[in-house]
Amino acid sequence: MKHEGISGAFRIVRTILVYGLFMLMILVWAFPVIWVILTSMKHRTEIFTIPPTILFTPTLTHYADALTGNDILPGIVNSFLVASGATMVTLLIAVPAGYAFSRIRFPFRDRLSFFTLIAQMAPPIGLIIPCFLLLNRMRMLDTYTGLIAVHMTLTVPFSIWLMVTYFQDLPSSLEEAAMLDGVSPFNTFLKVVLPNAWGGIGVTAIFAFIESWNEFLYAVVLTGSNTKTAPVAIFGFLAAEESRWGPFTATGVMIMAPVIVVALIAQRHIVKGMTLGATKG
Amino acid sequence: MDMFKRKIRIRPSYIRKQERFGLIMTAPSLLFLAAVAALPLLILVVMSTYTIDLTFPSGNRWVGLKNYMQMMGDSRFWHAMRVTVVYTASTVFLQVTIGLALAMAFFKGFRGEGFLRVSVLLPMILAPVVVGLAFRTMIMTPEYGILDYLFVLLGIGSKPWLVDPTWALVSVIVIHTWQWTPFAFLVFLASLTALPPEPLEAGLMDARNGWQRFRHIILPMIRPAVVIVIIFRTMIALRAFAAIFSATGGGPGTATEILNLYTYRESFNSLNLGYGAALGTVLLIITVGISMIFFRLRQSRM
User: Fold this and answer.
1) pTM (predicted TM-score)
2) Does an H or E element contain B62, and which?
3) Which of A30, A93, A122 lies at the smallest CB-CB distance from B122?
4) Binary contact (A97, B25; C-beta < 8 A)
5) CATH for the A62-280 domain, from 1.20.1440.230, 3.30.360.10, 1.10.3720.10, 1.10.10.10
6) Whole-complex ipTM
7) Does B248 touch chain A (CB under 8 A)?
8) How far does the CA of residue B21 sit from the closest CA of chain A (Å)?
């Protein structure tokens, strides 16, 4: 009896500690994000009060400011065009490749799949120097096509890899049946495999979109006044006016919002996709 | 049934059809990566043997290994190497140790785990440039930044976060660790949850104190995950750019100038593309070299 009492008390202490840690983690990781959102809705005078105010009457003036004042709105539109374009083309070429690498036997398969990994190892700064020179020669600086192509060097390798792990988990019995019936490999892929793979394709699309949407280095080197994306625009904006935290946080929220909404909806799949490669070994 | 299948698969015409199909399906991706990733990297190496100055194009010429010779005597390059090593080693170490400790605390499962997952997911999906700018302004500005305010409140006092060279390096390490520790945490949490219960419980009965349990039972079982997290995070830390660029710009002076930032400044601020390409080539050799070492390590350990 006495033993149980001690372990019972121990369990309570442990529970309290775990929940304390839980609160601390929320504070450390979610609070800065919440703080950005709160600041974006404070009046200018309230942003710089000490101690900081938690309760205040929210205002949307900073959003109006950010959207009308400078190149934030075009930036968001450009980011959307580039990220959507990169995602679509990536899926178009990476999904078939992922399928072939996981299911089809063909010459040099392992060496070729290793090649896609090497492309992922390349340091971005090393890639952007020649790409800048090439696109400059081709007069393709500050074009959507140029930026989308360079963004795809990031999205294609990991999309292939994500689809490979996804297809490996998919049972192959339906495909085998189709092939036994004499359906061509391509038709099998199109009519039997794809309709069952939308889950994996959706997660891959989310990752590709976020990667391109957030990307900064390639965008800052390759874009000019026509195609400047939101991350480049917000950087330029704050560099010019260091103390305008209101419009800055409003812009930050607009850049974060689509990604956060997607993450809330698909959090389970995103966590799984992130940890998949690492837990499978 | 099985034998029947095998017979059909072995038919030569079928095999040829499959082989052609596999090549056609992978061709677009492979050709794309060859053209937009492999070819530019070759060009990068070639560029590193030239003097290329965009502001003075008539002076462009082949100089052999001159850029590399210059690099050996370039103290700013060696400084950038040191900062890169410190930044990479400390961010990876902090992510792994903090992530592992938190995962150990939570792996028994508890109410509110879903909420925790979403909270720790947030930093990882944010644009690094927004993260860097937010830390530079609202979080680390003396007095008005929320972190600095907290330090004052706790009696530690205001700190020169991004102004003092040493503090600036600490700050960019803190920013990276803040953004990416959740990754290590989630991976370790997933692999702890996936451990087979029987050997784990048998082992836990034997070991008396908590550290022994961790060191001799749990750690060996999740070593593959630890190795992979170290590999992933090292590769990512070596690609770091936007968060540092937006928080400190490599400064004050060159205090937080990792090799990526030095290469960027040399190439796109000074427009010395030849020397920048040589720096980029060194980075390429370092990253490929490290990934090869990791690759071997993984193969031999598992």
Assistant:
1) 0.92
2) strand B61-62
3) A30
4) yes
5) 1.10.3720.10
6) 0.91
7) no
8) 7
